[in-house]
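Saturday, quiet lab. Running sequence design on the structure tokens for the scaffold JK sent over.
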């Protein structure tokens, strides 16, 4: 026999209390709200209990005896008036926005829709096609976090499934799950590379859009959130959400941080023609932005049908509570915010003093987390690279595009290239931020892989079912002489060298380096630069039994080690002419300072510069030659030794040389001058 009474309105969600469970949900305009309990299968509704209304719009009920594993959902009744933004319908079972676990699968059906076309689907009950919220009691994370400083951070962006699904040294039962990321075979690979921080594509529970499932495709990347507290069930080996917590703990024990790519800009409920699954049925006007005076018209700054309304206090609370949960309970170290400019936009546009940014900054739990913004969206004033405040870091797409254009051989790129490799001071220094504010990358999950960047001049997205219309067309890519796969040794050799050029530039630039998983062994997506819906070998990394033997893997390892030896890359401030310790000199091929005219000479497709630390008595000479011609270079006088020492290059190079050296076409070189007693390793 179940007993119910008025519960507590805090905390929101389901909370285990003695022999019962307290349920609390925010639905300020609902007229009645019911808690629906289900049997262990999730198929049969066994009880429907009326909830109690509290001031401020929260409903609660305490039910006993109930315990962990209880399956439930909500039904909200009230006015149904889409023109006024009200979508209450008692026939729609709603997920708890604060659910910490889910049971069962989501299935697309007409039963999820209640207002397109108006009224005709309102009487259909969708419970059979909905996952159920599940009561859990997960203890707080007790592991020790690595707390890697930004100055030593090296980010490896990967997809949970794609990273391990074809890994031969991981058991089949674990491949493609969270636990696979904690396997020794995967961890040792990250450690070999020198990776400090694992950035995971979305792991919040998500569903595939209906337009994809009808074509036999899925939302593989996961940018279509269903619930902000539950780990995606397909990534759990046993279905137990504590597996995520265990994975984080093992990675932390290996010294590796975990950052989550989070999607607090939209949800899977889409726009006016989308389903009613949770937020719409509880507080549609509060959770989503709509056009002023037209509550039935969703603002679509995301391109996904709806935009989360962070200006609403309870939507803001939801996001903050979710972030704190993943840090406090699941143990993660930080977040990369998808379309982050949306989170700081109000009616007047982007606001670097937005309530969300202030709330995160003052939060005692979140202020220590790593915070990375993708600083753009498709809304008005959506491109905000460089506009976020301290302590935020930002994906720097100008860095990506400039490096690609330079190595592609474009003219007139040198002045901007110098800014990018020097930490993009023009973007970040204006608001007292340093070079470590820039997340530097050449490729990410979105776009060509590193191997495809040098193998395809054009995108090849036919498999996505949109007649190759999706994805970016301006990729600043090259095919090195043949479009796609090639066995020509000259082409394959050049492709390898060009990948090394990009990697060398990346790791020896000021800023925080990030690589996409698979970059270290030439992973290809067959030229698909928008492989978001490809749950197949296009995205599953093709591991070999001896992966450490790939030349790119060794090259990255050497670059990370070299980067860590030189203090200029960990220095938190920009280097200017009056710096007493550090200096940077931009040189011409005669080893002399570049003249203003030389910076703008169109045929000049090489950049030469030195970085010096007078205190540590160490110097780097970096040469980037994107021209197709041999470059004869007179080396400048080494500051701390009699001779420059060749540390690394993207091509085969003779390590014996005088003060003059011939730099191969389309190659990159690094020389060192270090006070005796300091070694590289």
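Result came back. Writing it out in full:
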């Amino acid at each position: 026999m179940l007993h119910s009474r008025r519960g507590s309105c805090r905390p929101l969600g389901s909370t285990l209390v003695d022999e019962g469970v307290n349920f609390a949900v925010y639905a300020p305009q609902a007229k009645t709200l019911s808690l629906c309990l289900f049997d262990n299968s999730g198929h049969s509704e066994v009880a429907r209990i009326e909830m109690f209304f509290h001031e401020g719009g929260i409903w609660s009920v305490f039910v006993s005896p109930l315990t962990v594993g209880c399956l439930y959902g909500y039904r909200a009744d009230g006015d149904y008036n889409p023109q006024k933004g009200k979508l209450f319908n008692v026939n729609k079972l709603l997920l708890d926005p604060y659910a910490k676990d889910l049971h069962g699968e989501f299935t697309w059906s007409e039963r999820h829709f209640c207002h397109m076309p108006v009224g005709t689907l309102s009487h259909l009950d969708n419970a059979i096609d909905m996952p159920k919220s599940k009561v859990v009691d997960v203890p707080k994370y007790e592991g020790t976090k690595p707390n890697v400083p930004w100055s030593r951070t090296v980010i490896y962006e990967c997809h949970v499934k794609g990273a391990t699904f074809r890994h031969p040294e991981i058991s089949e039962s674990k491949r493609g799950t969270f636990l696979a990321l904690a396997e020794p075979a995967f961890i040792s690979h990250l450690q070999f590379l020198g990776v400090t921080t694992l950035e995971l594509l979305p792991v919040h529970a998500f569903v595939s859009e209906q337009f994809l499932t009808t074509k036999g495709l899925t939302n593989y990347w996961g940018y279509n959130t269903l619930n902000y507290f539950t780990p995606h069930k397909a990534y759990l080996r046993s279905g137990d959400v504590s597996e995520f917590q265990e994975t984080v703990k093992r990675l932390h024990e290996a010294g590796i941080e975990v950052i989550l790519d989070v999607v607090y800009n939209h949800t899977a409920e889409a726009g006016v023609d989308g389903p009613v699954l949770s937020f719409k049925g509880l507080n549609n006007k509060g959770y989503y932005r709509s056009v002023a005076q037209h509550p039935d018209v969703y603002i679509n700054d995301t391109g996904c049908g709806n935009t989360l309304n962070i200006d609403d206090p309870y939507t803001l609370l939801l996001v903050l509570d979710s972030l704190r949960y993943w840090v406090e309970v699941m143990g993660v170290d930080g977040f990369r915010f998808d379309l982050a400019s949306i989170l700081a936009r109000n009616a007047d546009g982007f606001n670097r003093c937005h309530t969300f940014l202030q709330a995160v900054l003052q939060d005692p739990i979140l202020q220590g987390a790593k915070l990375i913004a993708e600083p753009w969206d498709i809304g008005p004033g959506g491109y905000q690279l460089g506009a976020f405040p301290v302590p935020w870091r930002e994906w720097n797409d100008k860095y990506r595009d400039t490096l690609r254009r330079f190595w592609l051989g474009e003219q007139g790129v040198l002045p901007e290239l110098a800014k990018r490799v020097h930490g993009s001071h023009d973007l970040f220094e204006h608001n007292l931020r340093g070079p470590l504010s820039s997340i530097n990358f050449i490729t990410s999950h979105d776009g060509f892989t590193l191997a495809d960047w040098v193998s395809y001049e054009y995108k090849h997205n036919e498999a996505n079912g949109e007649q190759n219309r999706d994805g970016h067309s301006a990729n600043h890519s090259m095919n090195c002489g043949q479009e796609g796969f090639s066995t020509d040794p000259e082409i394959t050799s050049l492709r390898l060298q060009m990948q090394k050029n990009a990697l060398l530039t990346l790791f020896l630039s000021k800023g925080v380096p990030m690589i996409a998983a698979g970059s270290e062994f030439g992973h290809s997506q067959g030229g698909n630069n928008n492989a978001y819906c490809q749950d197949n070998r296009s995205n599953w990394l093709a591991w070999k039994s001896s992966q450490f033997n790939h030349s790119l893997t060794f090259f990255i390892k050497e670059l990370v080690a070299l980067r860590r030896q030189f203090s200029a890359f960990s220095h938190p401030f920009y280097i200017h002419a009056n710096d007493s310790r550090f200096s940077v000199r931009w040189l011409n091929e005669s080893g002399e300072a570049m003249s203003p005219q030389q910076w703008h000479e169109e045929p000049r497709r090489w950049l030469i510069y030195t970085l010096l630390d007078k205190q540590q008595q160490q110097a780097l000479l970096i040469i980037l030659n994107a021209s197709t011609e041999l470059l004869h270079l007179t080396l400048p006088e080494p500051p701390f030794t009699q001779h420059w020492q060749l540390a690394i290059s993207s091509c085969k190079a003779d390590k014996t040389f005088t003060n003059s050296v011939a730099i191969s076409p389309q190659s990159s070189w690094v020389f060192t001058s270090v006070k005796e007693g300091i070694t590289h390793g």
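Notes for JK: Residues 381 and 497 are 39 Å apart (CA to CA). The first strand starts at residue 3 and ends at 5. Ask whether to fix the surface positions before the next round.
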